[in-house]
Amino acid sequence: MAAISIVRSALAVALGMVATAVRADGDLVRFPEGYDKGVHYATVERGGIREELFTSREAIEAARSGRPLPSGTVITMEDHRDGKLFRYVVMEKRAGWGTRHPPELRNGEWEFQAFHPDQTVNRNETVTRCMTCHKSREHQDFLFTLDRMKAAQ
């Protein structure tokens, strides 16, 4: 019985560490100043939510040519709800990033961060939801909008 309690305690501690590791804590991804001067490559509408997606010209060119998106790629999503800016979500790819996450969550070298409309880190939001969903797009560099990047002007 004591062994079961020890295992349960260890599991609880490990799960707590994973949850802490994927909280929006601002330790890697920073708000990308001037993101809106990059390429606006997609608008996604779902119900009352409108998402505006921006990235760099370098990322667009890599996607068009079929190359992997380069280290340093930043994708910024403006999340609008009921006609107002609700939040920003940012994906950033850097060589060596992503290793702090367990394999079932890891999105290659991408990290995610959520920001309030005033561009401060939203410390109450976890990015596990982002990672879990984007994991299904591993064959497309973890992106749902890779085809739109390829078609962007």
TrEMBL record:
Residues of the Cytochrome P460 domain: 33-145
Keywords carried by this UniProt record: Signal
CDD domains: cyt_P460_fam (cd20716)
Entry superkingdom: Bacteria
Pfam families: Cytochrome_P460
Signal peptide annotation: 1-24
The name this protein goes by in its record: Cytochrome P460 family protein
Source organism of this protein record: Azospirillum himalayense
